[in-house]
Amino acid sequence: MVKNKISKIFHKKGISQPETTSKSSAKKIQSKRSKLPSTKKFVAGILEGNITFLSRAITLIESTNLKHQEKANTILEQCLPYANNSVRIGITGVPGVGKSTFIEAFGKQLTGEGKKVAVLAIDPTSSVHKGSILGDKTRMEGLVSDKNAFIRPSPSGTSLGGVAQKTRESIILCEAAGFDTIIIETVGVGQSETMVHSMVDFFLLLKIAGAGDELQGIKRGIIEMADAIVINKSDGDNIKNTKIAKVEFNRALHLYPIKNSGWQPKVVTASALENTGIKAVYDMIEEYILLVKKNKFFTHNRNNQNTYWLTSTIQQHLYDSFFKNKNMSTILQKEIKFLKKGQTTPFTSAKKLLKSYNDKT
Ligand SMILES: Nc1nc2c(ncn2[C@@H]2O[C@H](COP(=O)(O)OP(=O)(O)O)[C@@H](O)[C@H]2O)c(=O)[nH]1
Ligand SMILES: [Mg+2]
Question: In the chain, how many domains are there?
Answer without folding.
Answer: 3
